[in-house]
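F.,

This is the one I mentioned.
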């Protein structure tokens, strides 16, 4: 019995311990009675809301003391406007929602009211000044980055237009020369100019498309169109190139395809053409097949799937993860061996997204894509 009494005498005063702990907090902590009269406030709370507490000590009700504090913080507002702000803040606090307040010291705190037993209220205020400053810095950095990106897109669009004008002139004159009476050697030289000019025009058009997409200025123009006819034209366009490589190009359209579909023929042709071009480029033997089929049909709404498959070199997982990023190819050797800018698939992917579609790839090294 004696030992128990000694232990009891040595036991800490829990109430005093809790009070000491609350005063040591960096965050504000206060308790109010059912009439919202202050029962307890730690030192951070008293520093943050000194004006409000002093008003309550002078006999003001909590709403009036709160209004008085807001009025001192916002002296540029007239009484009615200040009353409106104070009432809104008070209503939000009483609703239990986190509320951002500016303290008497000019700090930014987030305060939350929580109900206690017998109608009392506990208020906890966390200092978020540093967080708000960081958010402001991030917003400013984001705005600068967006402005820089817009400037880059505008520059790309403008320079692409400037390049295309003289390039069209070069191609036009080369075509005139090609139609004239040239020797075999001269014709080969002019053909080289035309091939190089067309390659350069293709790159310029890709850069222009990418800059338009990034600037949000590329528009999709759907019309009624025959997808089967579009595919047959692509087969004629790329069939010769496939034969030159010893690759067989097969294009097929599902008989269930509606004769007319609402689509943008220019952009759909561009996307499928990019896929066929890549498939032929990375295939040295075997097949490249293009199949269009009905993926889903609900009443008059039809979703079409276009699948382009090749028996080429394929890709590993690392390449697949960066496949649709602009200016990206598998590695430097890919660029040296096959050429290209790495824009085709990136543009196609974004165009498909603009047309409310999905774009994806399945591939394995040495097993095609």
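My design for it:
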């Amino acid at each position: 019995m004696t030992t128990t009494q000694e232990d009891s005498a040595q036991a800490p005063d829990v109430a005093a311990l809790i009070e000491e702990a609350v005063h040591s907090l960096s965050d504000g902590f206060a308790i109010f009675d059912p009439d919202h009269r202050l029962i307890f406030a730690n030192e951070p709370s008293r520093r943050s809301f000194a004006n409000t507490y002093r008003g309550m000590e002078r006999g003001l009700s909590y709403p009036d003391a709160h209004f008085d504090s807001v009025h001192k913080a916002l002296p540029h507002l007239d009484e009615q406007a200040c009353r409106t702000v104070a009432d809104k803040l008070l209503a939000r606090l009483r609703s239990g929602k986190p509320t951002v307040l500016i303290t008497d010291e000019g700090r930014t705190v987030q305060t939350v009211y929580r109900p206690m037993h017998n109608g009392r209220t506990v208020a906890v205020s966390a200092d978020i000044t540093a967080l708000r400053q960081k958010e402001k810095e991030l917003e400013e950095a984001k705005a600068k980055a967006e402005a820089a990106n817009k400037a880059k897109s505008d520059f790309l669009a403008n320079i692409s237009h400037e390049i295309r004008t003289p390039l069209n002139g070069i191609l036009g004159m080369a075509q005139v020369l090609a139609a004239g009476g040239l020797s075999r050697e001269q014709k080969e030289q002019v053909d080289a100019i035309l091939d190089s000019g067309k390659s350069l025009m293709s790159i310029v058009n890709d850069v222009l498309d990418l800059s338009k997409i990034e600037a949000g200025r590329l528009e999709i123009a759907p019309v009624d169109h025959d997808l089967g006819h579009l595919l047959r034209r692509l087969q004629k366009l790329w069939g010769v190139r496939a034969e030159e490589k010893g690759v067989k190009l097969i294009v097929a359209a599902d008989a269930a395809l509606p004769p007319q579909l609402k689509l943008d023929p220019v952009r759909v042709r561009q996307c499928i053409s990019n896929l066929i071009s890549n498939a032929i480029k990375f295939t040295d033997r075997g097949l490249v097949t293009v199949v269009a089929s009905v993926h889903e049909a609900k009443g008059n709404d039809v979703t079409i799937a276009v699948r382009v498959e090749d028996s080429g070199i394929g890709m590993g997982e690392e390449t697949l993860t960066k496949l649709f990023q602009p200016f990206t190819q598998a590695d430097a050797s890919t660029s040296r061996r096959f050429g290209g800018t790495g824009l085709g698939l990136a543009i196609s992917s974004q165009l498909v997204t603009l047309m409310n579609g999905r774009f994806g790839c399945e591939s394995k090294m040495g097993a095609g894509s």
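DSSP finds 13 helices and ten strands in the chain.

Talk soon.
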